[in-house]
Amino acid sequence: MTDPTLRLAVLDCDGTIVDSQTTIVNSITEAFALNNFEPPKSDRVRRIVGLHLTDAIEVLLGRSDRHLINSLVATYKEVVANYPTDGSGEDPLYPHAKETIETLDAGGWLLGVATGKSKMGLRMILDHYELHHHFSTTQTSDNGPGKPAPEMLYQAMFATGVEPDNTVMIGDTTYDIEMAINAGTRAIGVSWGYHTEEELNSAGANMIIHSYTELEDALNYLVSK
After folding, report:
1. N or C: the chain end with fewer CB closer than 10 Å?
2. Domain interval for residue 28
C-alpha cells in the first residue's frame, strides 16, 4: 500500500552521482582488447553508460552473438574487479552531490538509486563516499531488466510505498528519462553527464538542472504540481 505523503527521489549513479567515464571507458577498452576485438571509441562508450551491461556490450559489439557478448561481459567484470584500489581508479563525486543527498535525506525525502551498475559496484561507490545509509532502496542491473524498462522504478516505489506522482527519477541519459516515463513518474535530467540537454528534453524530461544546488528546489516544484 502506498502512502500519499511520502516523496521519493531516485538517482542514477554513473554520470549523475559520480563521473565514472574513465573507469568505464578503460575497462571496456581492455575487455575488448583481451577478446581480440578493436576497442570502441570513447564517445561510443559514453553513449551506452546507463544501459544494462549485456545490452551495452551488444550495442558496442554491433551483433547479437550471445557467446561473444557473454565472453566480453565476463571479461569486463574481471577487469573492473581488478581496477586500482589505491585511489587512482576512484570515480569522483560531482560537485555538491554529497551535501545535496544529505540535505534531501534530512528534509524528509526518501532516496533511491536505479543504475546499470552491479550491486557490488554500487555498494563500493556508496560505501567509499559514506552515502549508503542515506538510501532507502537501491536497484541495480542484478535485479532484472535494465533501463529504459520501468522495473527498477517499480521496485523502488514498491519498496518505499511511494506513489508514481510523488516519485522523481534523476539522471543524465535518455535511458533514465525513458524509464521514468515508462514507470509513470516525473523525470529530471542533469546536464553534467553523458547525454546532451537537447536529448534529455527530447526524451521527455520534466526539467533540466545544471548543478546539484538546483535539485532540491526542482524536486519540490515537481511534486507540488
Report:
1. N
2. 21-81
Phi and psi at 8, nearest 5°, equal -125, 125
* Residue at which a domain ends, from 81, 111, 133: 81
Contact between 12 and 112 under an 8 Å Cβ cutoff? The reply is no
> Distance between terminal CA atoms of the chain?
22
What lies within 8 Å, CB to CB, of 114 at 6+ separation is: 10, 11, 12, 139, 147, 152, 153, 156, 169, 171, 176, 179
Cα 146 off chain centre by: 10
| Predicted structure pTM score | 0.91
Residue 200 three-state SS: helix
Looking at the structure of the chain, the number of domains it has is: 2
What are the pLDDT digits (tens) for 131-143?
999 999 999 988 7
> Is residue 12 within 8 Å of residue 170, measured between CB atoms?
yes
Query: Residue written as cell 537501491?
Result: 138
* Residue 187 one-letter amino acid: A
Give the list of residues 6+ apart from residue 48 with CB closer than 8 angstroms, or none: 55, 56, 59, 60
